[in-house]
Amino acid sequence: MGRPWTFSQRVGAGFFASLLVALALVVTFAVALLSVRTHQKAGLLELSMDLLEVERLRRAFSDKVASERGYALSGDSLFAEEMVASRERFISIAGRLKARLLAEPASSLLDAAMRAEQEHEQAVRELVVAHAANVPRSKLERLFEERVGTTRLRAYEALQQLSANAEEQLARGIQTAVDVDERVLTLTLVAASLGLAVAAVLSWVLLRRLRPLREEADDSARRFQLLVEGVQDYALLLLDERGRVASWNPGATRITGYEASEVVGEPVALFYPPDAAALGVPEKDLARARRDGRLRTEGWRVRKDGSSYFAEALVNALRDEGGALRGYAEVTRDITERRRAERTQGLFAEAGRVFQRYTEPDLMVAELVRMMVPEVADACVLYVLTPSGQLRPRVVKHADEQKEPLLWEALRRHQPSPDSPRGVWQVMRTGRSQWVAEVSPQMLVKGAEDAEHLGMMEQVGIRSYLAVPLRSGEKTQGVLVLLTSSPERRLTQGDQVFMEELAGRAALALDNTRLLRESREAVELIGIAAHDLGNPLNTLQLLLRKLQRLDPGLAPDKVREGLGAALKQTQRLGQLLLNLLDLSRLSAGRLVLDVSLVDLADLAHEVVERFAAYASEQGSKLVFDAELGLVGRWDRLRLDRVMTNLLSNALKFGAGQPVEVRVERAGVSRARLVVKDHGVGIPLEAQRRIFDRFEQVPSEGRHAGFGLGLYIVRQLVDAHGGSVHVESSPGEGSTFTVELPLLQPGSEREAPVNEPVLP
């Protein structure tokens, strides 16, 4: 069944039918009248021809009479020949008229003229015979006047009557033609009026019947227009066959920010991200819609202001009855919020699995940061509070692997200032998030410490910023920072709500993990402490008993040797006790730094001097090199513990090889301590966990330990706002590097003291 006709089609068909009816009437009348007029013209032509033939007949008779007169007067044979020819022409014309003049009285008048001509011809012949007989001239003239003149007059009269009759018939025909023309004109006007009247009546009937349809169509068009203009959540647009915008509704303006005047005639690629447009994605989408007739797709689109939104688009190819492509109809909806909700649910579910799977805080936060990149942002930084109350980056992740080391370096060199009114410290103090949808170049300049810092931030590319506190109850454990680098990607308020909820769950999970780990480690610590304290204590007891049985006067060397061994065991006990004390303070969050002005070179020299004898016993040469004047506000006792643990490990794992200790400047604002040995080295997989609690380097039992030294080193260095890392290869030794902030000229501020969150 065909499609119903549109209103325009019905009106056109009605007017066409009316026109055909009127045209048929006019043509019928015109044909009839033209036929009558043609017939009348043919009759007039016949009458004109009759009159012409009559005139020719009279002329032929006149020529004959003139030839006869000449012959009669001169006797010249030429006149005789002309007379014969004129008579033959007369007879021919009379024959033609005989066939034409069939009606009376023309037929009778023609017969009378022909008889008169014959009588005249007879008289002429008699005159010729008399002339040939040498009849006297006087008698010939009398005979010509009596016989020839009389017949000639009768012939002229007959021809005159015939001519008058032909003229009369022609005059009647002309009058009849005039009357017919008047009637034709009248009938033509009547036919035209009738046709127009019929067309008007049919048009009126059609309009009367079609008016409701037109009103319905207009009402439907108005309703459709109201529907299109009232749709605010969908972009409804028509594209021509080349993919250019042909129509645009207010919903499209609300979603994209473009007015109709700005986009009509523009290609649909205008709304795609530049990289997608460069790859030809818009053309491929239209090709699929053209091939399949319909296409449903989802992807990122770009607004007028450059921001991105996730869109669901339905594209239908429009074809006419012949199957030719006439364009496309596209319906687009902004589903960014729906996608964000789906993503939020997915991330919450994944976060729940992460919180259940990992019992180590560091692993948990690392996995949490990995979840955020690149799903939520291009980069993520987790700041945690150190025992000294400073915020330090614990985990850094960037979607671009080439930018991640640069981001690490920028964070390491330029630590956040506690006095800053904005940034992570403000989030830490207030417990409230900070969100900047668009980070302008002026904001980058304002937040940079110097030109180097600004250059690093510009290379990383910071377009949008969100800082969320890791808060559990009244306690803020750290700050989670999200960054975007892509110009078309911005963090939204929805991202802030989501991240606040996720950060709250993460903080609670970290608290639970910390409590669980501390409870487990407390049990492990008891066993380790009992074991590690028992060994040197038993050794010390055996040595003292042995010394007790010796006679001091008989074996002084053995006494000194025994006392030296006992001293080493007491030093080991002291070092273990100090480590356990620091560990307990770190676990309880009660470590407080007693800062003062400390010269790093002097402190390192004291530690090296203290280990000189032990290094000699181990067969290792201590090489010390220091740059003087590197002073900072540090806790001298805690830095002594850092150097002691590093140097003790170097002599333990590098026995028999040189050990280097070096103090130098690292840039403008930092000092560097380097402890290098040439021992067994550390495998790469172990380097990632040697700074964790109770982790030991595999050593085949040759170097027993309890796995606390490097953990305490990292915690104490972090507490001073510094950093520590290791470079090592198996069989080539290890190099531990500690960097600490130097005292800035004119700075008298003491380091702040706060409770840490993650030990």
**Helix/strand/pairing class, anyone?**
alpha+beta
Uncertain runs with pLDDT below 50, 5 residues or more?
A: 700-704, 748-759
The average pLDDT value, as a whole number, equals: 76
- Total number of helical segments? 21
Q: How many strands, what sense, and barrel or not for the largest sheet?
A: 5 strands, antiparallel
Number of strands: 17
* Approximate shape: rod-shaped
Indicate the radius of gyration in whole angstroms: 63 Å
Which range best describes the helical content: under 10%, 10-25%, 25-40%, 40-55%, 55-70% or over 70%?
A: 55-70%
N→C terminal distance: 80 Å
Strand arrangement within the widest β-sheet reads 2-1-5-4-3
Proportion of residues in extended strands: 15-25%
What topology does this entry show?
Blueprint: H1 7-74, H2 77-100, H3 106-132, H4 137-230, E1 234-239, E2 245-248, H5 250-256, H6 260-263, H7 274-278, H8 281-292, E3 294-302, E4 308-319, E5 325-334, H9 336-357, H10 361-372, E6 379-385, E7 391-398, H11 404-413, H12 424-430, E8 434-436, H13 441-447, H14 451-460, E9 464-472, E10 475-484, H15 493-549, H16 556-588, E11 595-599, H17 600-610, H18 612-618, E12 622-626, E13 631-635, H19 636-653, E14 659-666, E15 670-677, H20 684-687, H21 709-719, E16 723-728, E17 734-741
Parallel strand pairs: 12-14
Antiparallel strand pairs: 1-2, 1-5, 3-4, 4-5, 6-7, 6-10, 8-9, 9-10, 11-13, 14-15, 15-17, 16-17
Compose a concise summary of this entry:
The chain has helices at residues 7-74, 77-100, 106-132, 137-230, 250-256, 260-263, 274-278, 281-292, 336-357, 361-372, 404-413, 424-430, 441-447, 451-460, 493-549, 556-588, 600-610, 612-618, 636-653, 684-687, 709-719, and strands at 234-239, 245-248, 294-302, 308-319, 325-334, 379-385, 391-398, 434-436, 464-472, 475-484, 595-599, 622-626, 631-635, 659-666, 670-677, 723-728, 734-741. With 759 residues, it is an alpha+beta fold.
